[in-house]
Amino acid sequence: MSKPTRRGSTTGSYQPAPNVQTPKERHHKAVRDQAGSLAQARRRLSVVSDNELVEGVAEVQIEEDTKLEVQVQKVQSEPQEETAFIISQYAGMSKKGYAPYNPRKKNQDSLVMAEDPDTQSLVLVVMDGHGENGDLVSRFLKATIPDTLFSHELFATDIEKAVEDTLEVCEARLLADPGIDCEFSGTTLVMGIIRGNTLTVANVGDSRLTMGVRQEGSDKLNAEPVSLDHKPDLPSEKERIERIGGRVFAVKYDDGIDGPARVWLADMDIPGLAMSRSLGDTVAHSAGVISSPEFFTRRIDPASDAFLVIASDGLWEFMSDQEVVDIANACSEPRIAVDTLIQLSTERWMKEEQVVDDTTVAVAWIGDYVGDSSGKV
């Protein structure tokens, strides 16, 4: 079993910083309660603010979109050589959630699953857009990242440098596009690149990649997160934000502190971003949010590594890494695992909240791994 190496930030285990409450106990209520517990329905959103530029509020109307973007592909290459695909098959899907105050909500997630024959690489990317134009941001990057990455002169020899340059170039193009206002809109990005027996993960924000790893002498799999969520109360992230002049605290509602720590300007209660790294988000970036990816590298061992799951936080919000791995392990193929995870995630959101987040999931089988056809978790 190989442990991932991490580059791109101060190392250390995740521990929330002690002071994430409103400074001097000032009361900040992110939204007015316009429909019973409408304010509570927005607690888990990526962007929260009183400022009408950040997010409008419409009449309460729930409408669920049933159209799914589905991508399924099997890789025929046998993983015999270092340059051959070690992934046997993979599938991905993106499903729009709903918000009761936004009947015209669009799916702001985007999914990329692309192969580069020249380098024998498989690239999986999940982006979780947020803000008024989050859908435009994630779609723009979906359209520009693959070709930019594959054509980079160093992609064959220096993956991390190629990814860094690609994200920098694509974000610059995004910010220069007059049709996409990124002041209060942006996206997360988690990218998994599988080449030979090496997995390279680039992460910006709080989407996540986790692996299912076999336990010796058992049919059960252990969950092994590869990436680390970039939350504002991660000490190294919080220190950078405050050093640049931003503030970090959780929104206080009438019933007390609730919801995640968020990033705010020094003198205005905007933008209320619930992550410390993102692409776009020019206002949040002036408060210390950055778009630099953090890299994790892990050796893949088909003898112990069964599969990987890469997903937006629509999946991870109410499901632990271990639960996700257990569910995927109970499915006979990646497509069924993706379907099941998204369905269960939607049910969990409907039970816990009055909003359902967009959810994007991709699952990739490693080597000769075969899931459990019984469907029992």
TrEMBL record:
Residues 1-41 are annotated as: Disordered. PROSITE patterns: PPM_2. Residues 89-366 form the PPM-type phosphatase domain. InterPro entries: PP2C, PPM-type-like_dom_sf, PPM-type_phosphatase-like_dom. One of its GO terms (molecular function) is protein serine/threonine phosphatase activity. Residues 7-22 have a biased composition (Polar residues). It holds the Pfam family PP2C. It comes from the Eukaryota. SMART domains: PP2Cc (SM00332). This is PPM-type phosphatase domain-containing protein. It comes from Pinguiococcus pyrenoidosus. The lineage of its organism: Eukaryota, Sar, Stramenopiles, Ochrophyta, Pinguiophyceae.
